[in-house]
Write a structure and sequence with these properties.
Elements lengths: L1 H16 L16 H11 L2 H16 L3 H13 L4
Helix pairs in contact: 2-3, 2-4, 3-4
Length: about 80
């Protein structure tokens, strides 16, 4: 259990202080639209991927930027399917 909490703490520190944040212009745009990303997330089946997709698309609807679509595409490609 302690290892899990240490891992979470390490990830939190890296998220806050590790590396340089990507600039929107440096991110390769996603070539899929919102509906295709939703279909991929549902097919993927992981509830965290689905929630992440929903959150990114909700934020994208409020302030469109290719960063949110690219983030969903990236997560779908790195998290193993069930």
């Amino acid at each position: 259990m302690a290892l899990r909490y240490a891992w979470q703490a390490g990830c939190g520190l890296y998220a806050c202080f590790g590396g340089y944040p990507a600039v929107a212009e440096d991110i390769e745009p996603c070539h899929e639209d919102e509906d295709e990303l939703v279909d991929r997330a549902i097919t993927h089946g992981d509830e965290h991927v689905i929630k992440f997709t929903e959150a990114c698309l909700h934020r994208h609807a409020r302030g469109p930027t290719p960063v949110y679509l690219a983030a969903v595409d990236h997560v779908l490609s790195i998290i193993p399917r069930r």
